[in-house]
Design goal:
Strand 1 and strand 2 form a beta hairpin. By secondary structure, the chain is α+β, with helices and mostly antiparallel strands. The protein has 2 domains: 195 residues, Tetratricopeptide repeat domain (Serine Threonine Protein Phosphatase 5, Tetratricopeptide repeat, Alpha Horseshoe), CATH 1.25.40.10; 110 residues, Nuclear Transport Factor 2, Chain: A. Helix content is 46%, strand content 16%.
């Protein structure tokens, strides 16, 4: 129930984030290494980059997430705390601090961190939900103390049971029910806390209806395969890469769906600001797309993977990229983007 924002993912960064083309590559390489299970390699890659660009917020944020996965909690706390000091307008580091504080049982610090996150970004839904969990944990602690002093108080026992049900933990008179830790959406899937609660048992499935007899009509045909709109998807790929290469940020961002979910757990506003900064920073950019492989998922969703050749100033980089697409009103848009 308690969520950690990640690499995942708010206030404008344009005036404070000294982004370069190298930063995106360092973060993408780190994400790829984490996806391969090489956490130490990802940390070393980020450390090498940050040695020359110590103020890059995205790389520092990603490094904090890697430290969490490595169970280096004190270092992760320092990483996110330093980010809140240097970039106080970003809510995600505050939220991640709150998660780590809550895991240590320090709910007051967690509450303060979440309130700071909401002060910078009042519409940050994850922080609102997490703050509710913290209040529930603090209430549980208070009810536990009351019950330890007056074990016969049935009203307190009932309230404590409600809090315990909310968190999926048994009622005790000795310890507060901790907030259930929810996963953070990292670029490399989720990062559960050291002790995630067991999921609630699934409801019993309804009895299956009687199976109808198979048709003996040999003329009946199987459902047709979903057609692949290669022309429409190639049009998106060409326009997207050309807008990127020409550093036309408005046209580039227009290829992303309103439903797009950025990697790193960033809000869409933060991601868009970072992309504008990274695309406009180099003096020139060239993006090549090679060997696209398109898979139709259904009539309005598809996935395409390809080799991306990126060049900017003195940087050259080649990665495998996967785009999840949706078709809205006859136009394909990107809903998810990942590096493999």
């Amino acid at each position: 129930m308690f969520k950690r924002a990640c690499l995942v993912a708010v206030a404008s960064l344009a005036s404070v984030l000294p982004a370069t083309a190298f930063a995106a590559t360092a973060v993408e390489e780190a994400q790829s290494l984490v996806a391969q299970g090489d956490l130490n390699g990802a940390l070393k890659r980020l450390d090498r980059y940050l040695a020359s660009s110590p103020q890059d917020a995205e790389a520092r944020f990603t490094r904090g997430l890697v430290l969490v996965k490595l169970n280096k909690t004190p270092e992760a706390i320092k990483a996110f705390a330093d980010l809140t000091r240097d970039y106080p307008q970003l809510p995600e580091p505050y939220n991640n601090l709150a998660v780590l504080y809550a895991q240590q049982g320090d709910y007051e610090k967690a509450r303060a961190a979440l309130e700071a996150a909401l002060a910078t970004h009042p519409s940050y839904a994850t922080a609102h939900e997490n703050l509710g969990d913290i209040y529930a944990a603090l209430a549980g602690a208070a009810y536990n103390r009351a019950l330890s002093l007056d074990a016969a108080n049935q009203s307190v026992r009932y309230k404590l049971s409600l809090i315990s049900q909310l968190n999926g933990t048994p009622t005790t008179a000795s310890a507060p029910p901790p907030p259930a830790a929810a996963v953070a959406q990292a670029p490399v899937s989720a990062m559960p806390p050291p002790e995630s609660p067991l999921p609630a048992p699934a409801a019993a499935a309804p009895a299956a209806p009687p199976v109808a007899a198979a048709s003996t009509d040999t003329t009946a045909a199987a459902a047709p395969a979903v057609a692949v709109d290669e022309a429409g998807i190639n049009t998106l790929l060409n326009g997207w890469s050309q807008a990127w290469s020409s550093q036309n940020t408005d046209a580039y961002l227009a290829y992303y769906s309103p439903n797009f979910k950025p990697e790193l757990g960033l809000t869409r506003e933060t991601w868009a600001t970072m992309r504008r900064e990274r695309i406009s920073k180099p003096t020139q950019i060239s993006v090549g797309i090679h060997n696209p492989q398109i898979t139709a998922l259904d009539a309005t969703h598809a996935q395409v993977s390809f080799s991306q050749d990126y060049r900017a100033d003195k940087l050259a980089d080649k990665v495998t990229k996967v785009l999840d697409l949706e078709n809205t009103d006859g136009s394909w848009k990107i809903v998810r983007e990942s590096v493999h």
